[in-house]
Design goal:
The chain is of the alpha/beta class. The chain is about 35% helix and about 20% strand. It contains eleven helices and 16 strands. Helix 1 packs parallel to helix 11. The longest helix has 26 residues. The structure holds uridine-5'-diphosphate. Uridine-5'-diphosphate binds next to helix 5.
Amino acid sequence: MYDYLIVGAGLFGSVFAAEAVKNGKKVLVVDRRPNIAGNVYTENIEGIQVHKYGAHIFHTNDKRVWSYVNSFAEFNRFTNSPVANYKGELYSLPFNMYTFNKMWGVVTPEEAAAKIEEQRREAGITEPKNLEEQAISLVGTDIYEKLIKGYTEKQWGRPCTELPAFIIRRLPVRYTFDNNYFNALYQGIPIGGYTKMVSHMLEGAEVRLSCDYLKMKDELDSLADKVIYTGPIDEYFGYSLGCLEYRSVRFETEVLDKPNFQGNAAVNYTDRETPWTRIIEHKWFEFGKDEAGNDLPKTVISREYSSEWKVGDEPYYPVNDEKNGALYQEYRKLADREKKVIFGGRLGEYKYYDMDKVIASALDVSARELG
Ligand code: UDP
């Protein structure tokens, strides 16, 4: 009845759906949530697009992906420049000349580099083996202690010495006064929200929401020639080899009767004691204005709390350490035997994917599959 059954209406599934429909295929998309768009889902509250599953700022260096998303939405010129709050001291992120000046009083890039080099030498790190060593060798011990250690241990629930170094390499270190968090040529937020963008991707596909694939697998499988599965790979196999670890996130969202709570979209609380990792003030993704350009009198904020995932929670971040990497490879072998199924996306591939990388991957997979 359908050429493709797509499990999950997030970015991977929706891009695949758009490509399949473009190629004249009949597509059914199911999602167990009552809404489309997976974790990029946005909802309008008080005229503000609220990122219900955490802040998503689109950024990419891939021109193909940038043109692709722009064919489904118009993007604004938002540039992510979070602020770090360490016990009331405010620092610019990512680590740049403003951060170094505030931390040490240094004024020139040479002075900043010398300070970092001095701290790196004192720590005696030559080849960083974990996140802590990588962080100290990039920015020195002071920044590590105040801006990285507490935040990272809250976010990941593990000591920095047990986390992979690559996580911290996501953040740029700049010897310039550039507060742009991303090294990306293209950046912005879809005007009108991600949900609207994803709904355009899904045009021409049949979508069934609140439909739990794994609970009615046989029935749904019988409807289509092939399945694109974007849910957790371990859940697909009934956790038969054990659970992969994820970090989950909980949000406490509040509408405040004031126009400006923190003056920025993201403020990270980098000390260990504050229980939340960051506060998002959603209106600043849209410059505090509604779609018609009017100033908004209220504001919506979300405090973000990180926790270890357990069965039944929403999985957010794969914990890409060695142990989980090895278990994923075992699941991968099982997945390769499922000839009718393609596994894709953050949960299907157990990968800490950025949005642009998920889209690139879905475009590659669909090009191979659809010819
Ligand atoms: N990080 C940090 N301090 C900050 C922000 C980030 O130490 O104020 C570290 C932390 O380990 C985090 C990693 O940098 O896991 C990557 O941060 P990013 O902002 O890329 O994470 P995401 O937005 O995907 O949650």
